[in-house]
Amino acid sequence: MKLPATPRPDQNWLRAFMFTIFGTTALVISYFPLYFKEIGFSSAQIGYLYAIGPLISMFSNMIWSYTSDKYRTIKRIMNILIIGQLVTMLVLWQVASFGVVLITISLFYFFYYPVYPLADTMAIQTAQRYGRSFTVIRVFGSLGYAFFALAIGYAISAAGAPATLAIGIGIGVFTLLCSFLLRDGVAAKSEPVELAALLKILRSKEILWFFGCTFCLAIAHRMNEAFLTLTLSELGAGEGLIGWSLMVSAASEIPIFFLLSKYGDKMKELPLLTFASLMFALRFLLMALAADPLSVLAVQSLHSITFGVFYVTAVRYITRIIPWQYRATGMALFIIFWSSVSGLLSGAFGGLLFEAAGRPAFYQLAALLAFIAGLGFLYRHLFAKPEDMNVGGISA
Fold first, then answer.
1. How buried is 286 (Cβ within 10 angstroms: 0-12 exposed, 13-18 middle, 19+ buried)?
2. If pLDDT is split at 50, 70 and 90, which confidence band does 379 have?
3. Which of 85, 113, 252, 357 minimizes the number of CB atoms within 10 Å of its CB?
4. Could you tell me the pTM of the whole model?
């Protein structure tokens, strides 16, 4: 039974938690590369450090999700994960050797990545409890990213790159305090997942096609994400302007999230996914052509109709095509394709491409991958058979 859609303390603390964990995201994605550059690492080495995170997340997500299901708690698992992040950042602050940094950052990623699917799960449960839209809670993540991207940029500009990890520890402490005040969430009791039925679902055309297109787009998205700050730095941008660029992209998501929460259900998912993918292709093509930091800043405004449209629509699509008892697995797979495997490839090979071929070729490849993903979603929309939508022969 849904409770009245009125403010509740658990909603407010979850919003605060979302706000702060995406502050950590802004730091890790956008300022860790600059920190590693400051301590003397090459673009290829930075690419490897970025790639190891998605590799770690492929099994860390499964380990912590299984632990959460087994002990029927989300809050306590997230408490452990935030504490693990704090400890590893303290260690990372003290080391500068590439080998030691690689080991330490691997431990950090083990605790870093699983927080986000667990937080989304808690947000979905909380939204359902009060009859609210998931995006009304998730939008606070975008607000947090926008705020911290700008604030961290100015802080690092004033204090220097060595302050990066001190800032991360400060954000982590506040995040931990918020996590202690959350209302716990657990998955509803259901029949055990049957492996044979799960494999049948994963072999369905609809699932394979969706994750194939998502994977292609994700590689392009992660290439840009990993090397955006280095691109800006290469073009002569200071930390303050880098912060503005990140803030523009995150803030642009907010109106899109609200619009899709209100009107998104009236539009079909595959055309929206096609539109988002093609706009990603345009965005990366413009990045290849950008000649100064202000041009990049303008291009970042396209984040609203690329990532904003894609993410919300993809989550809605997954919840529609996958039977409810397997949706947690579906979301886990989405995270693996969108963040883990794609991040591994884009980090490992993107750094080499960026260093060897240069920025224009790097972004042209990203544009091509996004365009291919758009064609894939469009093909599926135009030619999918009705029976293909019955995933695994199980009603969704």
1. middle
2. very high
3. 357
4. 0.75
